[in-house]
Amino acid sequence: MPKSMQTMVAVGDCRGSKVESQQAIKIREATEADNQALIELQARCPQGTNFILGIDSSPDFFARSRAFEEWHVLVATQDSAIVGSAAFAVSETQIEGRRIKTVLEYGFMADPRHRRKGIAANLQKKIEQIALDKNVDLMHLDVMEDNLPSLNLFWKMGFKRVRDCRVLNLIANSEQKVTKQENIRKMESGDINAVTNLINETFRDHDFFQPLTEKELTDCIDRMPHFDLQDILVYDDAEGISACLGCWDYNKIRKYIVEKFSWKMRIQISLLRLASIFTPMPAIRQPGERLLSYNLFLPAFRDPESLTELVKSAIEKAAENQITILNIPLDPESHVTPILSQFRHLKTKLHFLIKPLTYESFSNVGKRRIFIDVSEI
Predict the structure, then answer these.
(1) Which of 24, 148, 300, 302 has the maximum number of C-beta atoms within 10 A of its C-beta?
(2) The CATH number of domain 168-350 is 3.40.50.1010
């Protein structure tokens, strides 16, 4: 990360040096020395709207961000204590065939004891200032449905909602019947060309997808903590590799504790419990219990049946390891969505928001399929 930067924002009516000292909010870039304080802040900030989850990123708060090539974590401090945080990643992508420099924003937190001080808004202003300095064309982020405080904040900051996607939470059960196990194996270094081509073919008509070179895919895998080639399954038959699917053990990045469910999620869970009368299903975690999950990474295919077999294999592996759900964000019109939707799942709507920073036209963003990397959620 670049050298630490800092800005002071006056909050409230500051009369006298003592009051100003207590109320001044500073925004700076986080350092590795902030790791424990950020973990403690995160523990005070449950996240989610359907699943309300407590999150523990120990021992490395920054692990989630390390999957990105250029990433930054900002902190808001008051009297030297960290009271808020937000993160962003800078990258180049393609929108409507144009190469665009973008900022993805994620990980906003404000200490509940310090709310209504404009912490999130000032973190956002700092991100935008840095983005402008870096000649970024467009900022974007994902907001879970019903997260009205976040939606209101970003609407006020000039973002607009351009498309609704979804997070599928596939339910891990041991009743999957993999019919062609002999064709499924772990990825090897010699597969990188075939897998790169497969990914590019699958997502080439999605906005926010930059076609990959073999080196870029290799570098991406190398950056992902607790993930390597052995975590990618390929379907390989006489005609070559026809599908691939990564399975990232995200429990090594973040630990989730169930706090409560929304009424929408309770309805979905009730329906799944009804279904479990006929099909064995894993127990849905109750408040206070740990939710174990995998994240599915870059599902790509030439043959739908081949990807279906890989998903079955991934679910079977998850069930063996006591994993409850496998998560993946998808555009509803993605070629991958109907394949994964055939499996038992919960789902959460995901709002995709953008804010242009240049005079380039982005009026058609949201009219085409959107690619959402699993690292974004």
Answers:
(1) 300
(2) no
